[in-house]
Each structure stands twice: as C-alpha cells, then as structure tokens.
User: What shape does this take?
Amino acid sequence: MSDADETVERAMALVEESFIAGTGPGGQNVNKVATAVQLRLNVFALKLQPQVFARLKALAGSRMTASGEIVLTARRYRTQEANRTDARERLADMIRKAHEAPPKRARTRLNRVGKEARIKAKKSRGAIKANRGKVDW
Assistant: This one.
C-alpha cells in the first residue's frame, strides 16, 4: 500500500460530513430534502510531509480555510448517497495528486550557434530602438 493510499484512508476516517439543502436537479424535492453534502477535513490532523502539504494547499485553493480545513461541497446528484460518494472521491483524488511529485525540469543547453543568433537578434532590436526618438532637424 502506497503512502498516498494510507493518507486517503486516514483522511476518510477523519472527515466530518454534514448534509445541507442543495440547489440544482431535484425538482420540488430539492426544497424538502438535504441532499447536498459538505465534507470537512482538518489537514493538520493528517500530519503530512511539508512538500505534500504545500501541494495539497495549492490544489485545494479557496476550498482550504485559514484554520487548515478543506471544505468540499457536492451537490451534483439528486441523492444524498451519490453526492457523498462524489465528495469523497474528489477528496481522495486531491490527496493522491498532492502525493505526486512534479517531474524534475531538465536544464536546456544552448549551443554556440544559438548563442550567436540570440546576441545578433538583441543587437538588431537595440539598433531599431536606438533609432527611435526625436528627430533633430
């Protein structure tokens, strides 16, 4: 079992759910039944590594509060259970993506011809700009 899967399991154990009146599909039923789900997860309780925490914070964006809680609302479906599953899957995906390290960027190397071409282009742009300005009659 990977580190991401363990974190997802811990997160699902720590998540707090509340059901709220949802908008969207459901007809008159939407006014009577609380089908939308709001998940709250305290990220600090997961004890993540600093780089994973930083990536999770970036992924969560405005869904993360100042106190370190991720708040996800799911109201896409008409049933409580479908919204609950949707919210939990979205949270699990977010945590798994936070565990993926971005690929290392390979430094590009410029050859001699490329350097000369760049300098030549800079000089010609500089000459064009030097010729601008007030004309002295």
